[in-house]
Amino acid sequence: MTVLQWTATLVGLSFALYIGIAIWSRAHSTSEFYVAGKGVHPLANGMATAADWMSAASFISMAGIISFLGYDGSVYLMGWTGGYVLLALLLAPYLRKFGAFTVPDFVGERYYSQTARVVAVICAIFVSFTYVAGQMRGVGIVFSRFLEIDIVWGVVIGMGIVFFYAVLGGMKGITYTQVAQYCVLIFAYMVPAIFLSMLVTGIPIPQIGLGAADQETGTFLLDRLNGLHQELGFTAYTDGTKSTLDVLAITAALMVGTAGLPHVIIRFYTVPKVRDARISVGWALVFIALLYTAAPAVAVFARTNLLNTVTDQPYAEMPEWFTKWETTGLISYEDHNGDGLIQYVGPEAVDAAGAPVQNELTIDRDIMVLANPEIARLPNWVVGLVAAGGLAAALSTAAGLLLVLSAAISHDLLKRNWRPDISERGELIAARISAGAAVLVAGYLGINPPGFVAEVVAFAFGLAASSFFPVIILGIFSKRLNREGAIAGMLCGITLTAAYIVYFKFVNPAANVAENWWFGISPEGIGSIGMAVNFAVAIVVSRFTPAPPAEAQRLVERIRLPRGAGEAHEISS
Amino acid sequence: MNRPAAGRDHLAYWRRNLRYVGILLAIWALVSYGAGIVFADALDAVRIPGTGFPLGFWFAQQGAIYVFVVLIFVYVFLMNRLDRAFDVDERDEEGAA
Description:
heterodimer, A: mainly alpha, Sodium/glucose cotransporter, 22 helices, 2 strands, 71% helix, B: mainly alpha, elongated
């Protein structure tokens, strides 16, 4: 079979599976729609969280980014996993004990304020839309490249699938499709990773292959890559170019952002008990770590293969994948010195005579994972598998985000604000309509994306870090934090972060260089400053305003103890 | 739960929880911000024997993640034991709702 036939078959089969699961797991009540009836096994929830969490950015972009950034790419590896420690130790068990449906639910009740709830809803909608746009874009890229369908149609097909199981099954449908999607995506990621590792180092475990010797030359792979990099005028692969402070800030922003993302947090509302919530975070990180520790290995294999394939080779003899990606505009070649060979070099490259050499090849980082199997000449079915995996990653995350958006509208705004007397049936219909509407907006954003997949997602983290994380933590660990402090903190944190990012990314991108940044912190890392500001403002404002009422303080005492999670659910829902 | 003694017990339970969290988060920060970032260059001088890994680079791209996983499971173990010791663990009939 050809690549196209394999891809169509594998993608078709995986979609049929998702639809089958959706029909089997329809939601019949609001509790099933929002939190899967709180009956998900912790292991299944761990898998669903992993799929929910690992987005198009993790699957498609991350290894490519690391491949180009080398050591600097570590911010994503540590940042996107370290947040789970915070979730397990500081958030998940307490929020499960509280036992609500949404994140704004907690903020609204803990801070006894509709205003706080509405601010939280706005933050949740803002964060989730930013994030979902990237996912839909990922779906479009996979479709257009692998199935030779227009990006617009790719997005429309993706919307159709998500619409089907998110609207029908709500959280219950999403959870079980996410379990299936995790299996598809991890298989699709690990198969080429294992193939590559075997090919390059002869060791089948990529995590070990990364530190092993390369079969061709017998030198350690990392040493060889560092050597190649220096020859071609790039920074050594295992060294970074970012300032230490910026690396710290970005890592912190991503960690805290992870722990503050509403679509991740609500996954831990779906398990039966507090102790299930704790262990479930552990399982989630195990499943995530499998991909995240393989990604840096894939990055190194891909980088080595790429440099070997293109460096000083005749343009006319480039393999088929090169031409294919060239037509999508994601690879471009310009023969500056007219020798017909490809000079792919870094900024410090010099020739034998010491004269600077101009780079002639531009490669979009997003294609590394997708092109990898072809670069390494893996069998056609592996290429098709990667396409199915990329779609699973993008769709599973999109579904989780759409649920947050739908719950924010139908539960937090409609039920808790505008129409408290709405019936269960009415709320369920409203939830389905808002999920449907959110799918349409997400699709529009996917067709007209506001930026690159990874950049847009990084934006969402900064916003989550600077809005939710501090008020939730303080709401659990401080009895003194009051309504005024929480609202002021959220507003200051998110405004500062959004303003900084919008200024450097959209208003004045030309000024986006280290000299203009505050303390040398890039827009990717500003979320950690926003978080610190949120914490500081919330604490100071609380000191100067009245203490929270006794009821809010009792709520804090109640969520600190695991016993009674079942009862808590009855009271608050 | 409404017995007067329970309040003191709960305070002790909470303090112990905070101590566990504090220690585990210190390790969390040490392997990621410490070994993976601030001391990465210094640790790169050392290699993991028999491999091509500079130690700082390994922590940043592999080691920190493994430690994170272990930290969560240690926390789960410690808290489940603590819940039972202070008799605040969930009973089995709970959670069916």
